[in-house]
Amino acid sequence: MEYMDKEYCLEIWGDWACFTRPELKVERVSYDVITPSAARAVFESILFKRYAMRWQVTKIEVLNPVKWAAIRRNEVGAVAGKSPIYIEDKRQQKNSLLLQDVRYRIYAKLVFIPVKDRPKEAFAKHQPSGDENPMKYYQMFERRASQGQCFTQPYLGCREFAANWKYVEDTGNLTKPLAEDRDLGIMLYDMDFESNPQKPDAMFYRAKMVQGVIIVPDKDSKEVMR
């Protein structure tokens, strides 16, 4: 079966979001809009098969104006281990600069990885048939997304900020995105798990919003900085 270069669209929204800037370590400060890595994670929460496919985010449409809110949150300043954690002893209050009342349309392509191109560890538990094709995964995603099914709850940057979402099947007659141009500067693109799965390096790109639309380059593009 021939490969189909199909693009999918999801509309996501929520009361709060925080797409944390990695250069600010102590207190969370969000980017102005959702990052490609956060958009990818939303698609993966609906369907993800390791070694067999990956998601390539292609476009982000900003639907609501960018609004900020500063809040103070309780966080735990310790990592869980063999010894129990007494939260009252490890509690820390930190400021967070969050996004409020966000809504986006995110677009992505399902990139199928042929059986012959998969690493040996992909066949440890399951040996796929040699004629496996992308249509299998297209149909799985469309069925799950149309029924509102997901393996994990999608979130907007932080797990406590759950995302509402819906599958946009017909993209021909949609409301226009935010009528605003903005240079968003250098933004986190994603983590390079393919080069170093144990300790991935961060990838960045120059994000520009033109009339509410952000075009996301391919991960192998020269626009992506490693």
Shape: globular
Could you tell me the radius of gyration in angstroms?
19 Å
User: How much helicity do the residues have?
Assistant: 10-25%
What does the main sheet amount to? 9 strands, mixed
Find the structural class using helix and strand composition: mainly beta
Counting DSSP E segments of at least 2 residues, the number of strands comes to 11
Q: Give the averaged pLDDT, no decimals.
A: 90
In angstroms, what separates the terminal alpha carbons? 35 Å
Instruction: List the helices and strands in order.
Output: EEHEEHEHEEEEEE
Low-confidence stretches: none
Strand content: 35-45%
Tell me about this structure:
By secondary structure, this protein is mainly β. It is built from 3 helices and 11 strands, in the order ββαββαβαββββββ. Strands 1, 2, 3, 4, 5, 8, 9, 10 and 11 form a 9-stranded mixed beta sheet that branches. The radius of gyration is 19 Å and the shape is globular. The two termini are 35 Å apart. The model has no long low-confidence stretch (mean pLDDT 90).
